[in-house]
# Entry
Amino acid sequence: MEDDLKNDYNLMDAVKEGETPPGSYNIALRSVTKKEFRLDYWTGSFLMACLGYLAISGVLLFYYFQQGNPYGSTQEIINNVYFGHLILTSHLYTAYAMVIIVYVHMFRNYFVGAYKGRFRWIQWMLGVILFILVYVEAVLGYLLSETYIGVSALHVMELLVERSAIGRLLPALSNWIVSLLIGDATTASTVGHLLALHVAVIGGLIVVIAFLHFFLFEKSGPFNLSDRKNDKTVKKDEKHYPWYPVNLIYTLFTSFIFIAIILIFSALFMQILPPAYGTLGYGYTPFPDWYIMPVYKLMDLAGYGLTTGGVPLVTFFFISLLFIPFIDRYKYKAALDRPMITVFGVFYLIALFIMGLWGYSQPGLTQTRLLTMAMWWGITMVSLFTVYAMRFAKKDLVKNES
Amino acid sequence: MKVKNVMYAMVVLQFVIAFFMWYVSLSAVHDYQTIWTILLALELILLSLLFMIYLRYEGVF
# Structure
């Protein structure tokens, strides 16, 4: 059991020939077995479908978007371009779906321990980098139409860079980062820079890293959920279906159903463009899209100021996720056999929902230190007790069964 | 009901929907993007289900 979960740090082994470990290391596109046709094995395929749809609809939008007239051209797309409103809305909703599925994909692989194994550690790390890039890409996307929300978010981002540790220690570096974001601060220059980042730089990085991530998956094969490694009888009977056409048909047409559902949503609930930046909008509280909401509320709750409390907390979260393969030293893969890691995952899951909902009910309202502490300890206790209680219950169950 | 008949029925339904898509796109009214897209989505779902049923019929899953 332990050999199977060991990391291999010599990446040249991945391209070595003449090896046939589980998964088919020899061929680029693996055959699949019957038991792999479960939707939780295919969350990555839905992400690829999202990426494909976003690229296609993004190119179509790119033809009509003008960086010198961002809000006007967005309105033009909505009102005068044939199917423009639909393409814009479906681009937005597919991005939302992508963020949701990124979470589903990540948590699924987190809780089953799929980052354990030969090259799975680097696959996981690339995945976390993709997660960050998807967030950056999403935020850049909503800055582009120059609505009051987008421009407010841009100002917050500039402030975060300028007042962070980088900005305090190396002001020249932070100025350079800000200039990458906004150019010379005219509308055309700012939106031009954001567009280049959104379309070429971050978008390109996502495509390249996603394909590396996918290639590593094809090398390693799907994560074996069963702990019964020596159960040879199960493996012998498995019939392998070729990638073409069975796997292709499955992945293509599940993706089609998925995109079709998004299209129906986009047709029924067309996007409403928020007011432009600079229009009189008294009474509006500019608060961000739902996927930023937890981070936004975290800034209120951090309790030690924005750049000393909130930003390091978010950074800590990403770094701990990135290095999970090295933090997790448990020798088992079942969630309850890795209790502290599971506790951290459950903590994050609960905190994400609480912060998001709280963010919507009280956006931008600073909380007291006491309330903050009570919430953090509350969530910690809830996740600890739940996981350990389940562990004891499982042990009890196993004892009673035998 | 045989699987084959269900598949034939789905193909016929796709033709009917395709006819309506053609009709809607010929009327070329801007606001019809909603109905056209829902029809397209239905086509995609039917097409995908057709292939899923076929794979099941072949005993893949």
Observations:
- Residues 3-27 of chain B form the longest helix (25 residues).
